[in-house]
């Protein structure tokens, strides 16, 4: 997975690095900054979670400036994704780095992503929003089955939230299956807003040991 991420950095025209202001700036942050050191002309840093009582955005900013000394200070932003504050300057900075090109698709073309990929991303987003402190990068979604029913008015989806260890499976399910139910219900609500038909979601949890070392899974997750 790290190799795929590093290859993506080489290809990217703009790189947005989000840092958690509520946790100490440590080895993980330094390692990422080392990867970005020769790409500082394409980097934007977002210091996130400034709404947290534990946030130290000023100290985080100093740490970033030390680790990336050639990064312009006006490309370091403080924001709160939770409160939706400070987002507009980040978007403006991203647009300033991205060259405008010819249209690849018609203007009324909503997305080129396959349906199963979009469904998986929505489910994963709902899961991560509830589990970001426990297992933010250790889960993926496997869409096992999709079937259109009722003359095209209803889409039935069977999906698995996949984790790496049995202990993580219990976290995702939650006490009395409350957490997995909440993920399913909220995912279903979001899916019904997107698709022009009713969506019925059957969501379960499965252990897939060391999935981050499996090329087949990574290609599916990243839509290679």
Automatic annotation (TrEMBL):
InterPro entries attached to this UniProt entry: GTPase_Era-like, KH_dom-like_a/b, KH_dom_type_2, KH_sf_prok-type, P-loop_NTPase
Pfam families tied to this protein: KH_2
GO cellular component, one term: cytosol
GO biological process: ribosomal small subunit assembly
One MF term in the entry's GO annotations: ribosomal small subunit binding
Location of the KH type-2 domain: 131-209
UniProt keywords, alphabetically: Cell inner membrane, Cell membrane, GTP-binding, Membrane, Nucleotide-binding, RNA-binding
UniProt superkingdom: Bacteria
Family according to the record: Belongs to the TRAFAC class TrmE-Era-EngA-EngB-Septin-like GTPase superfamily. Era GTPase family.
Name by which UniProt lists this protein: KH domain protein
Biological classification of the source: Bacteria, Pseudomonadati, Spirochaetota, Spirochaetia, Spirochaetales
């Amino acid at each position: 997975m790290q190799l795929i991420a590093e290859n993506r950095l080489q290809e990217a025209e703009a790189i947005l690095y989000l840092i958690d202001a509520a946790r100490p700036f440590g080895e993980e942050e330094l390692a990422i900054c080392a990867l970005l050191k020769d790409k500082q002309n394409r980097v934007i840093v977002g210091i996130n979670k400034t709404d947290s009582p534990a946030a130290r955005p000023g100290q985080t900013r100093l740490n970033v400036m030390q680790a990336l000394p050639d990064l312009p200070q006006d490309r370091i932003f403080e924001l709160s994704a939770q409160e939706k504050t400070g987002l507009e300057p980040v978007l403006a900075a991203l647009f300033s780095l991205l060259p405008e090109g010819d249209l690849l698709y018609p203007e009324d073309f909503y997305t080129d992503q396959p349906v199963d990929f979009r469904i998986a991303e929505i489910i994963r987003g709902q899961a991560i929003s509830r589990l970001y402190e426990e297992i933010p990068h250790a889960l993926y979604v496997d869409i096992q089955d999709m079937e259109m029913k009722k003359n095209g008015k209803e889409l039935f989806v069977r999906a698995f939230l996949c984790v790496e260890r049995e202990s993580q499976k219990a976290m995702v399910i939650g006490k009395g299956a409350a957490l997995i139910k909440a993920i399913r219900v909220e995912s279903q609500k979001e899916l019904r807003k997107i698709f022009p038909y009713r969506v019925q979601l059957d969501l379960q949890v499965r252990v897939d040991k060391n999935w981050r070392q499996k090329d087949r899974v990574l290609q599916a997750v990243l839509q290679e």
